[in-house]
Specification:
The protein is an alpha/beta fold and 477 residues long. The chain is 33% helix and 20% strand. The strands form five sheets. The chain has a six-stranded parallel sheet, with helices on both faces. A five-stranded mixed barrel has the order 15-16-17-19-18. It has a three-stranded parallel sheet with strand order 7-10-11, sandwiched between helices. Helix 8 links the parallel strand 10 and strand 11. Helix 9 runs parallel beside helix 11 and helix 12 packs parallel to helix 13. It is globular and about 60 Å long. The structure holds 5'-deoxyadenosine.
């Protein structure tokens, strides 16, 4: 049977879509290729949020096609996801080696289309049509934590699309209108996952706080999203619930109160800020003011003082003055985010902001990006350092991605903790004492778990490998 290699760019939703396509193909008898250069099928799951992400996928496809030709191979090459959706037919016209273009509502048809192409029944397939009910079609899971080991945590897609229409954002065009799965459908999927040993779920969507608005009326003052969280919370054996990506205005009092009431809902809140200046927030069509934003964070911290607060910020939105930018800096100083992803504004096709006056020069964007990144990293670094000496609860996910000789898990507030653990700790909730910090990483003290618990084949105290600084604009590539 043919082998497939899938490379993913962009957000967690893309990771989830790729995983579901891989699971679908495995169920049809495909195998997963160890490397893109030996695969019979290579699929690039693309991101359109910024131009750089699109360019990377385009370069990658040209390189893949070139290498295959040189080696005398003819793999089936395909684009899927957001850039496939926004560029469609144009992709096969400009890159003649591309055989398949699969839009964001068509992931569930990947196997059927690949069968057609591999059998030579069709030469090229481009399908970017809308499909009713497609929000409920991404349900297969791979559930492999690597090397045949069980996963501990999984993404569950609860809705697709976004109706917010922020003026900089291409997502409403690539993911379409908001469509939600039903509460029983999501609960069934989560229950199945827990039945297969998972302990944590992350509820996913482009704007999860708008989940089910049209389908489920308010119940006792609770939004559809809070009703969903409550239903998932009932699942026995599930330990933790996360969600992403929310909109700040979606943190109503019902959701804030849920953090205090529902113990499985962890203390981690992502609130994409975008700008600290009211003038820009309005131009961006964000639907909140600086003051409202600060009030939400204050309320969240009142309910849960240990809340991990993260954000996304864009620098260089059209018309951004030095004074506007300084308002963003001052807001960051005031809030002290645990993590902030800083993006350089990138004009996107058919978005209102791309046609606005006052486009900011690349030099200014570069300079502001560096200044903001320096500030948010320094503030976050202090927050991490303040945890030294404290005891945290982590859910162990598996070997550390930075140093496979160690194990890692995440705190409830979404901070990665690396510790000298063993395979037996996978899936366990462990209390660890934080002994030191690295770049956006905490290092746990093995004394608390007891050296006896450490696998003998691991070196417990070997120094960590140098880490990459993960907080940059690289998240969505
Ligand atoms: N340019 C730069 N950053 C963008 N984002 C979305 N659209 C753009 C754009 N055109 C960022 C926002 C969003 C994150 C996912 O990507 O900060 O929250």
């Amino acid at each position: 049977m043919p082998s497939v290699f899938i490379k993913t760019y962009g957000c967690q939703m893309n990771e989830r879509d790729s995983e579901a396509v891989a699971a679908q193909l495995l169920a049809k008898g495909y195998s997963l290729a160890p490397d893109e250069n030996v695969a019979d099928v290579v699929l690039l799951n693309t991101c359109s949020v910024r131009d750089l992400a699109e360019q990377k996928a385009l370069w990658k496809m040209s390189a893949l096609a070139g290498l295959a030709r040189k080696a005398g191979r003819q793999p089936v090459l395909g684009f899927m996801g957001c850039m496939a959706q926004s560029r469609g037919q144009q992709l096969v016209e400009t890159l003649p080696d591309v055989d398949l273009v699969l839009g964001t509502q068509k992931f569930h048809r990947a196997a059927e289309y690949l069968d057609e192409l591999l059998a030579g029944r069709r030469k090229k397939i481009v399908d970017t049509d809308a499909e009713a009910g497609s929000q409920a079609t991404i349900r297969e899971h791979l559930l492999s934590g690597g090397a045949g080991k069980k996963s501990v945590t999984a993404f569950v897609s609860i809705m697709q699309g976004c109706n917010q229409h922020c003026t900089f954002c291409i997502v409403p065009a690539t993911r379409g209108e908001e469509r939600s799965r039903t509460i029983p459908d999501v609960v069934t999927e989560c229950r199945e996952l827990v039945g297969r040993g998972l302990r944590e779920v992350t509820l996913l969507g482009q704007i999860v706080t708008s989940y089910g608005k049209r389908d489920y009326p308010l119940k006792e003052g609770k939004s559809a999203f809070v009703q969903l969280i409550e239903a998932v919370h009932e699942i026995e054996g599930l330990e933790r619930i996360r969600f992403t990506s929310p909109h700040p205005k979606g943190y109503g009092d019902d959701l804030i109160e849920a953090f205090g009431r529902l113990p499985k809902l962890v203390e981690a809140a992502h609130l994409p800020l975008q700008s600290g200046a009211d003038r820009l927030l309005k131009l961006m069509h964000r639907g909140y003011t600086r003051e409202r934003y600060l009030t939400i964070i204050e309320k969240l911290r009142r309910v849960k003082p240990e809340m991990g607060v993260s954000t996304d910020i864009i620098v260089g939105f059209p018309g951004e003055t030095e004074a506007d930018f300084e308002e963003t800096l001052s807001l960051c100083r005031q809030v002290e985010f645990d993590q902030a992803y800083v993006f350089k504004y990138s004009p996107r096709k058919d978005t209102p902001a791309a046609a606005m006056d006052g486009q900011v020069s690349a030099e200014v964007i570069e300079e502001r990006h560096l200044r903001l990144l320096t500030l948010v990293n320094e503030l976050a670094g202090r927050k991490y350092d303040a945890l030294i000496g404290s005891t945290v609860e982590i859910l162990v996910e598996g070997p550390s991605r930075r140093n496979p000789a160690r194990y890692e898990g995440r705190t409830r507030s979404n901070k990665i903790v690396v510790f000298p653990g063993g395979e037996r700790h996978r899936g366990q909730l462990l209390e660890l004492r934080i002994e030191r910090t690295g770049s956006f990483t905490l290092y746990g003290d093995p004394a608390v778990i007891g050296m006896d618990d450490v696998d003998d084949d691991k070196t417990p105290l070997e120094p960590p490998t140098p880490e990459l600084n993960l907080v940059s604009a690289e998240k969505h590539q």
